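Fold it.
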Amino acid sequence: MQEISCIYALSHSHINCTIDSVVWYTSQITVYFRFHQGRVFEYEGKRDTRPIIDFVQRATGPAVIKVSNLSELSQLMKLKAVIYLLLHDENNSNAMSVYKNIAERHVLNSWFYESSNEDIRKHLQVPTGWGLLVLKDGGFYAYDNAKGLDEDQISLWVLEERFVALSSVELVVTDEHARNEKLIVLLSLPANYANVPVLGKSHTAVYSTAKSRRYHPAFYFAFSSDDYVIQRVTMGAVSRPCLVVVNFTTHQFYPLSKDLATVSAEESDVTELLDQIREGKATPMGGKTWYYTVYSFLWEVTAVMKGMWTTQPVLVAVMGSLIVLLVGVLIFVICSSFEPEPEPRLSPVHDKPPKSVEMPPAEDIKEDQSDTEETEAEQGKRTSTDTKTGKQKED
């Protein structure tokens, strides 16, 4: 295990941490941080300064942050993030205790705030008692507190609401989407889509569908400008720009039939596709078949090698040479096992040719035959004599 001491200079404090392990995957690195509190967190975001600082602040700071006035609330509303806010009375310790437990479990997913300010309560039109809100997409949505202070129910709601209407994702984040067993409506466009009218209209149509929350119970909406994400999900069957609905449980996907490079997607196109999927009328591609499994493995190996070639060509060349050498040795061993067995050789005793048998002269053979005939005649005479003697005795 590689341990590297590191210090992150933050705006509020200096954070000392230890990187426990670094796992290379193409150009990506998975980093596990162990902080002084003894807790270990896995960072799966972009390798940029701001996301890493946010990650460290969440992991080291308090799980729940207090909002004191409307000015602080307005600043939170402007952030392009998912923020949970608990409004409660000062004397309601049960709601705060449950909320804090949930915040500590999901501190890396979102920001958790709390307030007992009456002005904030009136501004958000929350009645007396406790109320839990999620601030995102320029507005807020409330948890149904009629379900009570059930920690599991609230935790599930927090997980379902942890993404914005159309979240920008990497491949690792799409996996995080899939953990909640929802289908993902994945829009893949180039990074400059806003400058291309036909692509910008498609983005607006998908965003409007996502923000309506009509399909929220069954679908997540995500956006990616990374071509690798859509290539990895569809195994190269669909190219960017496109709209694909992905089922990460069955590895099936449903592409929108329109070519988004030339024709914009309308909101009706998106809703029609989602309705067909919910009703079981859409025909999926991919799936957990042996062909898909083999193809996925080969595609993954090829993609990894390509990614490594751009960053470490020498290492890839050495690895390729070793693979070719190993395959060559394997083929040689297999071919050697099928060679014909050599014919067995005679022992030294049998190497000499057998001795020829000498036949006796023809005259000797005739004499032997005559002797045999005489012997048989004499035996016949003796037999007849013995028969006659036996009859005489009986008389």
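The mean pLDDT is 76.
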